[in-house]
Amino acid sequence: MRTSIATVCLSGSLEDKLYACADAGFDGVEIFEPDLVVSDRSPEEIRALADRLGLSLDLYQPFRDFEGVAPDLLEDNLRRARERFATARRLGIGTVLVCSNVATATVDDDEVSAAQLRRLGDLAAEHGIRVAFEALAWGRFVDDYRRSWRIAERAGHEAVGVCLDSFHILARGHDPAGIEEIPGDKIFFVQLADAPALTMDVLSWSRHHRLFPGEGAWDLGAFVRHVARAGYGGPLSLEVFNDVFRQADTRRTAEHALRSLVWLEDRAARLPGSPPTLQRIADPDVPTGFDYVEVKAEDTGDVEAVLGQLGMTFRGQHRTKPVRLWSSGDSRVVLNEQHARDEAPHLAGVGLRVTDAAVVSDRARALAVSPASRRTQAGELEMAGFVAPSGLEVFLNDRDLGDEPAWVAEFEHGHAADPSDPASGGGVRAVDHVNVSHGRDAHDEAVLFCTSVLGLRTPPATEAAGPHGLVRSQVMRSDDGRVRLSLNVAPGGVRHPDHVALVCDDVVAVAQRARERGLRPVPVPDNYYDDLRARFGLDGQVLATLREHRLLFDRSASGEFWHFYTPRIGRLCFEIVQRVGDYDVYATDNTPVLLAAQDRMDRAAAAGTPTAGRSGGRSS
Ligand SMILES: O=C(O)c1ccc(O)c(O)c1
Ligand SMILES: [Mg+2]
Q: What reaction does this enzyme carry out catalytically (predicted)?
């Protein structure tokens, strides 16, 4: 279907917005009236610019507070409408959105509202314009799309139809299935927005927290399928009022927006009973595991020291590049010193195992995701890869599933994995999850990248209190949990370390051996253990073990989670986890303990006190 976007979604001047929408690949835009009012370009100039850019101007909006008024007000409302229709004509726009009355309605009567819309329809028709009536979720009397359709139907005017906006329908919990009862040619416009599941007044929710499709809690695929099944043939248009997007980079947001729409149409097209008007892209191919994680630094020595303390094995130096490999079981950490001058250790990329990398690449291309480039030499394996919105590189491996990947052979002069593989002795077995921290601007886009390109799903988001503010977290995971990424929004300006979590079957043994090799884990305070005893009623021996090794603990209905963190190395740390039983949640109660402990270590390091030390030899 054709794609469109309301100018209110973006930052910048009206011209900036038009350029960005055209470059991103939208077919059209909705002109949000306040954007025109503040512009120094005439409607004719805006129309000419859109023409030049190949953008159609699909909708002029909003016209407010029209229906359900006393007779004396109606005349003034028609006068206002005449002016707005004239402006729409100058823009070359054929459809004007009229949203349901919020402020001046005094007559709660469908027949009266229908008669008034009929008058408006006559006036619109004189201007060659159609009126799309939209029920705002907070409308005075009309706050349900079924009622706005009843009134438009009763108006019985060819220039009067409805605008369906997913926000107003889903925010009120109204069943969108009724859309299929509206004739497609009376649906004059469709606006799409997702939203997080919040409990708040609906107007504030709508004006500040809307999200692009795929980033919130709603099933917009089903919504679009209803619209398509009704026979709607107009554009699918995004109308997302959001405080962050309105201040973010215009072009980047426009690309992000279009990606959400392409993803959504594909999703709707895949639902049973979807009509052929909905377009598909290449299939999603959900990753089946981590191939490797990549750490970059000018000097990777400190990271390697910690990997050694954690019992991992040095597997060798790359044949041609300053890149080294450590592994344990099915976990591989690639340490890259290429082009990393002055860079502190940080997480630079992840390798994922997929069934068919070409399919994922096709899908990523359809979603306009930037490919990552990697220089490969003769004899090295090429891998398809992309740059995720947070800057993380994601590479795909569809070979050697189940075995050690063939690219490991490019590393020389290290130790063999067998027979001394530490994983067989309870050591690190695999990468459990990867935790990436980024700024507020990149977050929703990163979530959409993971859902749309990788096909990961989103359990409910969480937030944890840290000493510098709330850290919001969104886990992205495959159904079987073999790929989990946690996307964290750090409070303004604070950069929390990313972390790589490695899973083992005996965290106490790994902690014990690491300590003997000089690792001092993040210092968990005694108060935490008092709290654990109160919360879980742990027996004295278990509690003593946890306390001795400064382990964190959680319990769910289906299992337990034991874990600890290494100190920060640059912008990175490692976590060692053990899952007991079928523990499958996220130990969110432990995050504030980690954040506070990391902060104490950072302060101690800044002050030069020994409690921050990574290496052994010092006692606490
Ligand atoms: O918030 C509003 O007033 C508003 C205006 C126009 C719309 O299309 C809408 O969905 C909301
Ligand atoms: Mg709307």
A: 3-dehydroshikimate = 3,4-dihydroxybenzoate + H2O
Which residue, judged by its Cα, is nearest atom 7 of ligand 1? 62
Give yes or no: residues 262 and 325 share one domain.
Answer: no
For ligand 1, whether the C-beta of 99 sits within 6 Å is: yes
Distance (angstroms) between ligand 1 centre and the Cα of 4 equals 16
Last residue within a domain, chosen from 238, 269, 300: 269
* Residue closest by Cα to atom 9 of ligand 1: 136
DSSP sequence for 510-521: HHHHHHHTT---
Residue 469 domain-assigned?
yes
Mean pLDDT of 64-90: 98
Answer yes or no: do 98 and 188 share one domain.
Answer: yes
Residue 396 belongs to some domain of the structure = yes
Atom of ligand 1 nearest to the CA of 6: 8
238 CA distance to ligand 2 middle (Å): 9
pLDDT at res. 617: 35
Q: Which ligand is nearest to the CA of 98?
A: 1
Banded model confidence at residue 419, pLDDT cuts 50, 70, 90 = low
Q: Is 58 annotated as a binding residue?
A: no
599 is written with which tokens? 């902060």
Q: Decide if 283 is inside a domain.
A: no
The Cα-based distances of 419 to 144, 308, 313, 318, 424 in angstroms read: 68, 17, 12, 22, 9
The pLDDT value given to residue 614:
42
Same domain, 96 and 240: yes
Tens digits of residue pLDDT in 104-141: 999 999 999 999 999 999 999 999 999 999 999 999 99
Query: 199-216, pLDDT tens digit by residue?
Result: 999 999 999 999 999 888
Residue nearest ligand 1's atom 2 by CA: 207
Alpha-carbon distances of 362 from 207, 294, 354, 453, rounded to whole Å: 35, 24, 13, 10
Does residue 230 sit in the same domain as residue 374? no
Which tens digits make up the pLDDT trace of 341-373?
999 999 999 999 999 999 999 999 999 888 887
Q: At what angle do helices 440-452 and 250-269 cross, to 10 degrees?
A: 30
Q: Whose CA is nearest to atom 1 of ligand 1?
A: 207
User: 166 and 309: one domain?
Assistant: no
Query: For the residues 141-150, what does the mean pLDDT come to?
Result: 98
| Same-domain pairing of 58 and 203 | yes
Over residues 404-416, the mean pLDDT reads 91
Q: Is the pLDDT of residue 420 over 70?
A: no
ipTM of the complex: 0.99
Residues with CB under 5 A from ligand 2 (ion): 165, 191, 239
306 and 180 co-located in one domain: no
C-alpha 247 – ligand 1 centre gap (Å)? 19
By CB neighbour count within 10 A (0-12 exposed, 13-18 middle, 19+ buried), where does 540 fall? exposed
Taking all residues of the chain, what is their mean pLDDT, rounded to a whole number? 93
- Report the pLDDT value the prediction gives residue 618, as an integer from 0 to 100: 37
- CATH number, domain with residue 385: 3.10.180.10
Pick the residue whose CA is nearest to atom 8 on ligand 1: 62
Atom of ligand 1 lying closest to residue 32 CA: 6
Q: How far is the centre of ligand 1, averaged over its atoms, from the C-alpha of 167 (Å)?
A: 10
Atom of ligand 1 nearest to the CA of 206: 1
Closest Cα to atom 11, ligand 1: which residue?
A: 136
Q: What's the domain count of the chain?
A: 2
Question: Is 191 annotated as a binding-site member?
Answer: yes
Q: How are beta strands 411-413 and 313-318 bridged, if at all? A: antiparallel
Other beta carbons within 10 Å of 610: 11
Residue 575 annotated in ligand binding: yes
User: Are 448 and 370 part of one and the same domain?
Assistant: yes
Separation CA 531–CA 518 (nearest Å):
28
> Is 433 known to sit in a ligand binding site?
yes
Of 321, 251, 331, give the one whose Cα is nearest residue 18: 251
